[in-house]
Amino acid sequence: MSDHNKIPVHQPDIGEEEIASVVAALRRGEISGSFGEAIPEFEERFAAYCGCKYGIAVTSGTTALQLAVAAADVGAGDEVLMSASTNIATALAAYRQNAVSVPVDSEPVTWNLDPDLIETLITPRTRAIIPVHLFGHPCDMERITAIARKHRLIVIEDCAESHGATWRGRRTGCFGDMGCFSFYANKIITTGEGGMVVTNDAALAEKLRMLRNLGFGKPRFYHPVPGFNFRMTGYQAAMGLAQLAKIDEFIACKRRVAATYNELLSGVRGLQLPAELPDAFNVYWMYAVVVDPSLGRSRDELAAILAAEGIETRTFFCPMNMQPFLRAQAGFRDVACPVAERIWRDGFYLPSANHLSEATIARICDVIRRAVG
Question: Which has the closest alpha carbon to 164: 180, 146, 188?
Answer without folding.
Answer: 188
